[in-house]
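Notes taken during the Thursday session

The instructor put the following on the board and asked us to keep it in front of us for the whole hour. The protein is Toxin-antitoxin system, antitoxin component, PHD family. We were told not to look anything up and to reason only from what is written here. First, the residues (78 in total):
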Amino acid sequence: MKSYPVGELKTHFSEVLEYVKNGEKVGILFGKNKKTIAMIVPVNEKKDLKRKIGLMDGKVKISFDKDFSITEDEFLNI
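Then, after some discussion, the predicted structure tokens were revealed:
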């Protein structure tokens, strides 16, 4: 990963965008210690739209009995 201080980033912005366009991440350095405070990353257009629900997604199976029922009021008061 390449990293640029803010001033250098402004000077080489077109070059930075080419790196990002080619799939690379670019860090932005800031302050006297030149710490990475942000990153420019490529947009992933092929996002997996499956949403994981919680940390246990795929590790547990949740099922309900056939006779399970709950009223809307019971649900809202949980």
